[in-house]
Amino acid sequence: MTRFSSRARRILGALSLFIATTALAQPALVSDRIILRQVLQAMPKGGDLHNHLSGSVYAESYLRFAAEDKICVDSVKLTITQCATPEQLAADPAHATAIVPASTLFAPYSSLYGQMLDALSMRQFRSGIESGHDHFFNTFGKFSPVSRAHVPEMLTEDVWRLASENVDYVETIFAPDFGKARDLMKAATPGQSMAEARAAIMQSGQVPPIIAAARAVIDDAEARMRTNLNCGTAKALPGCESTVRYLYELHRGVPLQQLFAEMVVGYELASADSRVVGLNPVMPEDSYISMHDFDEQTRMFAFFHQLYPAIHLTTHAGELTPGLVPPEGLRNHIRDSVVIAGAQRIGHGVDVTYEDDAAALLSIMATRHVAVEVCLTSNDVILGVSGKAHPLRLYLAAGVPVALATDDPGVSRDDMTNQYMRAVQDQALDYTALKRLARNSLEYSFAEGDSLWINHKYDEVAAPCAKESGGAKTSETCSTFLAKNTKARIEWRLEQRLRQFEASWK
Fold this sequence. Notes:
This protein has helices spanning about 5-15, 25-30, 35-40, 60-70, 85-90, 95, 110-120, 130-145, 150-165, 195-205, 205-230, 255-270, 290, 295-305, 335-340, 360-370, 375-385, 390-395, 410, 415-425, 430-445, 475-485, 485-505, and strands spanning about 45-50, 70-75, 80, 100, 170-175, 245-250, 275-280, 310-315, 345-350, 370-375, 400-405. By secondary structure, it is an alpha/beta fold. Among the domains are: about 45-55 and about 150-430, Metal-dependent hydrolases (TIM Barrel), CATH 3.20.20; about 60-120, no CATH class. Helix 12 (about 255-270) links the parallel strand 6 (about 245-250) and strand 7 (about 275-280). The longest helix is centred in the middle third of the chain and has 22 residues, at about 205-230.
């Protein structure tokens, strides 16, 4: 077993002993960032519960995909695009000549390569005319021409990178139907009730083919990922032992009828395929449709929750700040997502202090064990919220479960380890708190089956494994329990890995 240096052990000792009020005064934590990074990268971190698949891929990969696909980039708009046709050249020669083969980016001394990296991510971003918020969300349209065609490669990169920093479980947000669900809105008639609209869509006969095609996309992506990672061979790469699950991506910025059709497909897909463990609405929360239609969208979620009570829901809620929307727009998104829509987790939750009766809301979330997926880097680069302004410690103080997450690490040019770095250096969390957050990332995951733990305090193991020490060998009863319950199995693995990690610095 590899052991840490004495300096690393001192840092871990400091992490496990310091209190919040003096954390930032610890010389080892302030001055020895390199060792702290190494320690936290080696720390087993459980899972990533808020991970957009397309946003997890680095821009370098997207440019490589574009070159491999023999398509182009627009050197003016700085976006990946199809190459200009003869007709386009004739119609607009000035613009068409700005469209160049993506392969030219890899020529020596290409300045366009760096410009494209900056345009497709937060690399070297400096706020000016364009805000961090706008630049961040604008990147997705710039690489979308290649993202749909490279799902296996994207999944490989996402899982491999997370596993390389000791994150063994990921719930990645992804729509494997590639938008086909929205077309089903045509089967419904304006003015129908939600029950009538759903019945019309289900009776159209178009839902099963979309479900089958979506499952085939996942099958292919996972099979090719395992091949890409050399799984089952002596050259297996990190990620082969990871557990991957999917959150069906809904789009709250589209018209209500289209979103409703997506919900029909999403809930049906999650019912048909255990790998799709829940749903999550995406797109900027502050956009016109997201804000204007929020109440009706919430009622739609409540409707589907009654029909599919076993299907999990996590929602982007509270990814807002004062000024980004009017004050009244900050008052109820988290509360209504939990109380009305039935969300079991909340993504971001940054504006919680601006919610009506925030103290009561925090109590509700703590009582119901509604976890918050905290994305520290994302909240900083998109909203400008960090340090003491971030509500992470408020959630912890209120007893609301928290898990750290990456959000879009490819776009933000970041990783999970840096979320833990920020938790230590900006939020003053000690090792005990970090360990709890890592456990939370699996305890509040939507992985199938029962938990390893009797309660959420991590002090009492489920009866089948209660007498086990957590070693590699288990009784037949415990082994059977772990085999039947994915959640318990990944939690067991985390406990083993934490013991090994802690033994390396004692």
